[in-house]
């Protein structure tokens, strides 16, 4: 059996020699080229498990070679070597299709880790049975036969071959974590950990310790050494869910960890290397968050190398029948359960502001009301939809109070207005004495209605309002809203 062959493209003879010695010690065959012309000749005459190229070459840029390899040699992973601090070049290379990157001075251990990942990808591209089997169940996570879902699965399959950070966008309940798990399961890292972290659920004071770990005695209560999320995901994938909720101070530390691929535990003096692929997700528009100053632009560009958008359920209504069958089979515990044709039609006319998660809730409630497992239209108890839903559907930035006003009246039964209440246009002199106080009172009333609807379950209330749990908690403190005695 022949050893995998690696091609090194760099005009620095000393660096080529160092890389060659390192790779030969790993049992690999190595070819080297000082420029693009020689590299192109090598690619024509041999098959490579990995191409490693410098970004600046005497006769052109390494990114040109990245683009050519992705076009002509699609099963060959290519990585780039960038100058120290050239984050923009690394991001550009990843966007062009590079599998990964190394920064000068090249760390040999980091090189070995990257090469092993590339070799697994190369084996998968040539039909490695283990990876094919690993990919089979992953294809079942995101269910649907609509054109939108088929396109999405094809995108996920391509993304799985890269180490580039992926930013998943989509509305709440559309399956962002499932998409992240699919990317991981079809990647060369499928046998390594997948760690999902909800950034909005971690107290700000604990974030650094949770992400990077801590040493014994670093603070009160640190009785033992503990690894953080980065160490737990080492070799695998770390998903940062609701990444827009990260405070700015933590964003700086996260950016450094991603760029340097090293983390330092709280209380430690030395950094330790980590090999983690980052997948981020949020229902907010990160670009708009950057414009508002709540999200760092440099971190945005580092996370948003490749964007994957998940379609809302209302854009793939043809999948509802298949989704409903699978959900009912799981909920019924083997007992007969089905939708009447009229009920299925009603679901297909519904806009699903909560997406697949809302479909599951609707079916779970309907199954409890159904006779002999047959769900009729009346069992669904579908709510009337607000006309402003399509504003949210476009994922445009909307003021929180506006979002709540859109969602809550649709529920209908939070606080019923008096039967004789009518809408009267305000007179010109009917202005509030204090606009901030008036807006606070409006927001306070909406939050109280959401809490009443969810029996003071703050997690469900935050989801109903379209904000994070941490944002709701902050607003409750600011507006002096407390649980009933």
Low-confidence stretches: 127-139, 387-424
Summed up, the domain count is: 4
Proportion of β residues? 5-15%
Instruction: Give me the Rg, rounded.
Output: 26 Å
Query: How many separate helices?
Result: 22
CATH superfamily of the largest domain: P-loop containing nucleotide triphosphate hydrolases
Distance between the termini: 74 Å
Count of β-strands: 16
Q: Overview of this structure, please?
A:
The relative contact order is 0.07. The protein is an alpha/beta fold and 485 residues long. The N and C termini lie far apart (74 Å). It is 47% helix and 12% strand. Helix 20 (435-453) packs across helix 21 (458-465). The chain is built from 22 helices and 16 strands. The chain has four domains: 5-125, 3-Layer(aba) Sandwich (Rossmann fold), CATH 3.40.50.2300; 135-309, Rossmann fold (3-Layer(aba) Sandwich), CATH 3.40.50.300; 313-380, Helicase, Ruva Protein, domain 3; 398-478, Arc Repressor Mutant, subunit A (Orthogonal Bundle). It is globular, with a radius of gyration of 26 Å. The protein has helices spanning 13-25, 36-45, 62-72, 87-96, 108-125, 129-138, 147-159, 176-185, 207-212, 229-232, 248-260, 286-292, 297-303, 320-331, 341-349, 355-369, 377-380, 389-393, 400-411, 435-453, 458-465, 469-478, and strands at residues 5-9, 29-33, 50-54, 56-57, 60-61, 78-82, 100-103, 166-169, 194-198, 237-241, 262-263, 272-273, 277-282, 306-309, 338-339, 374-375. Mean pLDDT is 83; it is low at 127-139 and 387-424. A hairpin with a 2-residue loop joins strand 4 and strand 5 (60-61). The strands form five sheets. A five-stranded parallel β-sheet has the order 2-1-3-6-7, sandwiched between helices. It has a five-stranded parallel β-sheet with strand order 9-10-13-8-14.
